Amino acid sequence: MANKVEGFNFEQRHGKARVRVARVWRNKSDNIHSMVEWNVSISLLSDCVNSYIRDDNSDIVATDTMKNTVYVKAKECSEQLSAENFAILLARHFTSFYKQVTTAIVKIVEKPWERVLVNGQPHDHGFKLGSEKHTAEVTVQKSGVLKLTSGIEGLSVLKTTKSGFEGFIRDQYTALPETRERMLATEVTALWRQVFSKFFNNLI
User: Fold this and answer.
1) Homologous superfamily in CATH for domain 3-154
2) Domain-wise residue ranges, the chain
3) From the centroid of its chain, how far is CA 110?
4) Which of 19, 21, 81, 197 is the most buried (most CB within 10 A)?
5) Residue 198: which pLDDT band, with cuts at 50, 70 and 90?
């Protein structure tokens, strides 16, 4: 919530971007490893007007603290979890642990590591880089209100026929001819808002 400062609405937001963290889970019963690599960005909205008008940083969460929190919380995760669940875990931590923080925004981009196939079978601990990245962004308010968006980015697709482009605006600046037959290659980014019920709180 914004503070009033001499008639102006004051809202402070700062954060830490590009926190790279990898987490490996080792199943002792069968020695199968699972892993994720995340690029985490954090933004915190907080009540810290004193930092600007009284030379007092006692209400500021340092960005280095945010970075360290990502590493500690990832290490504490004894079971594999999704980028969405880890983002929610972090955002809820920041809004509950720090009384000054009113809203936490956490975005995660997951690197597309996938298992190597050996003789047609997934390898226990060998991975190769895939294609599209998995994304998750969560906003959590201190009141408990939660917004979650998932997505993919960098999905490259191509078709070799049956792609046309015609009927577009033509004027004195247009030189492109119309066609009903061509190749098409593009890169897809998609986002979707998650809808969940009350039981969602039990996932974290």
Assistant:
1) Urate Oxidase; (3.10.270.10)
2) 3-154
3) 7
4) 19
5) very low
